[in-house]
Amino acid sequence: MKLAVAGKGGSGKTSISGTMARLLARDGRRVLAIDGDSNPNLALTLGIPHDRLTAMPTLPRDLLDRSGGGAVLTKTLDEIRASHSVEGPDGVTLLVMAHPQHAGTG
Amino acid sequence: MHATVRSVIEAAPGEDVCILDTEASPEHLSRGTARYADGLVAVVEPYFKSLETGRRMATLAQDLGLERVLLVANKVRDERDLAAVTEFAAQHRLELAGVVPFDERLPEAERAGVAPLDHDPDSPAVHAIGKLARQLAETP
C-alpha cells in the first residue's frame, strides 16, 4: 500500500500520517514514511527527537540519473534506506526531503 | 526533488506500507509527486475552505490516475460537523474513509514535542486513526 496524505496546513495530515505509520509498523508491517514537505515535521509525530532529524541526511539530488531522458534511481531502495533514512519507534523507516532550515528549496 | 521522491515511492515494494506526507498545497500534487502512490488521503477539517481544498486535491489525484482517492475528516467535534463532511463527500462523490474526532490530546502532544501515540495511546483520535490505518491496509 502506497498512500499520499494531503491537506491544508493545520489540517492534521502529519499527525494522521505519523500515527498511521507507527500503528501499522506495530502490527508487524514494514513501513516507509516519507516527509515530502519542505517544512518537515513528520519526525515529531513519529516520535523521532529533533536532534536526530537535523543529524540525518536528506535525499540528495544525485540519487536520480536523468541522462537517459527518464529518471532512474542510482541506488536501490535498500541502499537509500541504509544511507539516508533514520529508524523511528516501532521500526518505522523515515526519509526526509528537506530540513526545516532549508524550507523553500525543495 | 519531487522527482526523487516520486521514484522512491515507485521503487517501494507494494506489499510494504509507504506513507508520503505531502506538502500542504495542491501544487505539490500537480507536480506529480504522488503519481506512484496507489491512493491519496485528503485530510479535511469540517469547514468550507478546508473541504474545498480537499476536493481540489482529490480532483488532481484523480487526474493523475490514482486508484483510490479518499477523504478523511479530522477535528470533528459534533454531529453538525459530521453532517457537513458527509454531505460534502456525497455531493462531490468522494468516499469518506474515516472520521477523526477533535481531541485535545493531539495539540497537547505537539506542545510537549512528542508523538500523539506516545503522549496518549488510548486517546479518541489515536483510536480513530488506528481504525482508519487498518481499514486502508486491509482493503486491496
* CA radius of gyration of chain B: 16 Å
- The strand order across the widest sheet of chain B is 2-3-4
**What is the CA-based Rg of chain A, rounded?**
14 Å
Number of domains of chain A: 1
Q: Any idea what the CATH architecture of the largest domain in chain B is? A: 3-Layer(aba) Sandwich
Q: Identify the quaternary structure here.
A: heterodimer
Mean pLDDT of chain A: 86
Estimate the global geometry of chain B from the Cα principal axes. globular
Short description:
With 106 residues, chain A is an alpha+beta fold.
Description:
- The complex is a heterodimer of chains A (106) and B (140).
- Chain A is of the alpha+beta class and 106 residues long.
- In chain A, 31% of the residues lie in helices and 21% in strands.
- Chain A has one domain (13-102).
- Chain A is built from four helices and six strands, in the order βαβααββαββ.
- The longest helix of chain A has 14 residues, at 13-26.
- Chain B has helices spanning 2-11, 26-30, 48-64, 79-91, 105-112, 116-119, 124-138, and strands at 17-21, 39-44, 68-76, 95-101.
- In chain B, helix 4 links the parallel strand 3 and strand 4.
- The interface between A and B is large, with 58 and 66 residues.
Structural key phrases:
heterodimer; A: 106 residues; alpha+beta; three-stranded mixed sheet; two-stranded antiparallel ribbon; 6 strands; 31% helix; globular; B: 140 residues; alpha/beta; Rossmann fold; 2 domains; three-stranded parallel sheet; 7 helices
Sequence-ordered SSE layout with sheet pairings:
The complex is a heterodimer of chains A (106) and B (140).
Chain A: E1 2-7, H1 13-26, E2 31-35, H2 42-46, H3 50-55, E3 64-65, E4 72-73, H4 77-84, E5 85-87, E6 93-96
Parallel strand pairs in A: 2-6
Antiparallel strand pairs in A: 3-4, 5-6
Chain B: H1 2-11, E1 17-21, H2 26-30, E2 39-44, H3 48-64, E3 68-76, H4 79-91, E4 95-101, H5 105-112, H6 116-119, H7 124-138
Parallel strand pairs in B: 2-3, 3-4
